[in-house]
């Protein structure tokens, strides 16, 4: 089971949030830090999440065609 930390980018769908995960790695030849981002759809029931909230997601069995993750914990809630 993979546990990933990321930022909520979209919370417009019913019981689904889109979480963006940033990864950094060093280029093997040029030694430059390269950033890549990937978006995961995660299942979430409960209080409302907003864009900018930090969450932990965990890999679970397929819930739908695109959803393979579930929100486990809300780390930080963005204040307005």
UniProtKB/TrEMBL annotation:
Listed PROSITE patterns: RIBOSOMAL_S17
A GO molecular-function annotation: structural constituent of ribosome
Keyword entries, A-Z: Ribonucleoprotein, Ribosomal protein, RNA-binding, rRNA-binding
Matches recorded under InterPro entries: NA-bd_OB-fold, Ribosomal_uS17, Ribosomal_uS17_bact/chlr, Ribosomal_uS17_CS
GO biological process: translation
Pfam families (alphabetical): Ribosomal_S17
Keyword match Ribosomal protein: yes
Membership in a protein family: Belongs to the universal ribosomal protein uS17 family.
Assembly and oligomerization: Part of the 30S ribosomal subunit.
Role, per record: One of the primary rRNA binding proteins, it binds specifically to the 5'-end of 16S ribosomal RNA.
PANTHER family hit by this protein: 40S RIBOSOMAL PROTEIN S11 FAMILY MEMBER, SMALL RIBOSOMAL SUBUNIT PROTEIN US17M
Matches recorded under HAMAP family: Ribosomal_uS17_B (MF_01345_B)
Protein name: Small ribosomal subunit protein uS17
Protein source organism: Candidatus Gottesmanbacteria bacterium RIFCSPHIGHO2_02_FULL_40_13
């Amino acid at each position: 089971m993979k546990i990933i930390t990321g930022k909520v980018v979209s919370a417009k769908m019913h019981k689904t949030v889109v979480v963006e995960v940033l990864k950094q790695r060093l280029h093997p030849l040029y030694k430059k830090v390269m950033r890549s981002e990937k978006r995961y759809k995660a299942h979430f029931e409960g209080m409302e999440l907003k864009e900018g909230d930090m969450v932990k997601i965990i890999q679970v069995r397929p819930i739908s065609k695109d959803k393979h993750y579930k929100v486990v914990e809300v780390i930080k809630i963005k204040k307005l």
